[in-house]
Amino acid sequence: MNAVPHSTEATSAFEVARVERGSLARPNGWWGMAVFVATEATLFGTLVGTYFFLRFDTAKWPPPGVPEPKLTLSLVLTGILVATSIPVQLAVRAASRGRLGSARGALLFAAVLQAGYLGMQLHLFVHDSHEFPPSGSAYSSIYLTMLGAHHLHVLVGILLSLWFLLRTASGLTEYRMNGLRATGFYWHFVNVLALAVLLTQLSPRL
Length: 206
Prior knowledge:
By secondary structure, the protein is mostly helical. It has helices at residues 8-22, 28-56, 71-83, 85-96, 100-131, 138-167, 174-202. The chain starts with 7 loop residues before the first helix and ends with a helix.
């Protein structure tokens, strides 16, 4: 005799898993996120392009008096952030199979690491802003703008994760599953951006 789920949450989770297995098309929420990601990718392409345009048009980069970016710390922090794509993807996979508890645990773990990354980066950002303010040179202006934009995207991703954790406290629905898939897609995009920003940030040392 087949076991029957004993709670609304379990029933919803198993129903979502059944729909996920039978679904071939991407939901509208996923496509909406894809359009947003494409727009933001264009924005960062412009920022990176501006950075290198200014760099090749300037004799000394960074300008005298501005320290070069810290290599080791930047690599470690970015490595931590990029690694969070693993628990985020595991959360999406677990939720699609009806394992809501595992999905929430993986997403919470990722959110804690992401929040730690953001906290450390904001501390460094404030320090850099005081040491070489954006009005001081073209380098400091584009450098801080690029980093600030990326930090903002990390914050948005953390808020999306927290929203999902809050909403799924009462169970998993197809609508919430679509939200998680879109959130996972967004996080992978943010981590690709992190690598692009890191390479741009460290390019004077390469």
